[in-house]
Amino acid sequence: MIPFRTAILRIPPDNAGSGLTSANLGSPDPALLASQHARYRETLESLGLEVVTLKAEPDFPDSYFPEDVAVVVPEIAVLARPGAIERRGEPALIEPVLARYRKLERIAAPGTLDGGDVLVIGDHCIVGLSARTNLQGARQLAGFLSVHGYRTDIVEVDEGLHLKSSVNALDDTTVLATQAMAGLDCLDGYRKFQVPEGEDYAANVVAVNRHILAPERFDGTRRMLENGGYDVVVLPVSEIRKMDGGLSCLSLRLT
After folding, report:
1. Beta strands 76-79 and 232-235: pairing type?
2. What are the DSSP calls for 186-218, one per residue?
3. DSSP 43-79
4. Are strands 252-254 and 6-10 parallel, antiparallel or unpaired?
5. Rounded-to-integer distance, Cα 242 and Cα 22, Å
6. What Cα–Cα distance (Å) separates residue 217 from each residue in 26, 106, 233, 246?
7. From the CA atom positions of the chain, what is the Rg in Å?
8. In this structure, what are the phi and psi dihedrals at residue 148, rounded to the nearest 5 degrees?
9. Bridge partners of 222?
10. Would the pTM of this model clear 0.90, i.e. be above it?
11. How far is CA 37 from CA 9, 15, 137, 168, 249, in A?
């Protein structure tokens, strides 16, 4: 995988608990959420990334999940059109920042697209159709990327909030997936690791510069990846998880 050089994060607002969630795990503790977010930021910095940290946006309590509002590849960035109406204002907040790094394209109505439904592995893009991403949005993204040589597969998301709740790349030839998603035809040809039973949440990992960031307390997944030769860094996510978030959601990563 091409090394990441930059990550864009946004500080969680104090009212993060008023954001969207279906987790039924209670409201996040603001201080603990801030601590977990800071740990994530410090970890990215320790792995050599320049971290751009944007200010909190209380009007958009989910905005500290910037992955959902754009898709970034080396050639361009595509501003999303979030499926949740409450998040529709977030792409405009990050647009001037992304414009420093990439030429911008935009998903337009009636298309909807969340970045969490987009997995890019080399020149292969997989887009999940979910409650947040529709076929029009997926096709628009595929069109933008095809200009730059990417091929796109569009799949149904039958579990979890987003595609990347259930499948993520460990490197350019390997994926980590839940049992339900490991059988996708578009994953044929990739080496696959399947999370153990009861650890589906642990499928949301982030591959960063030869390390795998993984949620803590999922020891079966951690051991499996370590035995597979990966350098795993576990991070606390209890408060992030309460708001349907995962480690990938917390940043936009740029090569």
Report:
1. unpaired
2. GGTTSEEEEPPTT-GGGG--EEETTEEEEETT-
3. HHHHTT-EEEEEPP-TTSTTTT-GGGGEEE-SSEEEE
4. antiparallel
5. 8
6. 18, 38, 12, 14
7. 17
8. -105, 15
9. none
10. yes
11. 9, 15, 30, 21, 11
Query: What is the Cα–Cα distance from 20 to 180, expressed in whole angstroms?
Result: 25
Catalytic option among 37, 124, 186, 249: 249
Q: Length of the chain, please?
A: 255
Report which DSSP code applies to 29.
Answer: P
Backbone angles phi, psi at 86, to 5 degrees: -60, -20
Catalytic one of 37, 124, 125, 162: 162
pLDDT digits (tens, 9 = 90+) for 19-66: 999 999 999 999 999 999 999 999 999 999 999 999 999 999 999 999
Sign of CA dihedral 232, 171, 157, 125: positive
4, 60, 122, 127, 255 from 50: Cα distances, Å: 9, 25, 22, 28, 11
Compute the distance between CA of residue 5 and CA of residue 16 in angstroms, rounded to an integer.
28
Taking only the tens place, the pLDDT of each residue in 88-125 is 999 999 999 999 999 999 999 999 999 999 999 999 99
Fold (CATH) for 6-254? L-arginine/glycine Amidinotransferase; Chain A (3.75.10)
CB–CB of 190/162 below 8 Å? Answer: no
125 is catalytic: no
**Catalytic residue flag (residue 148):** no
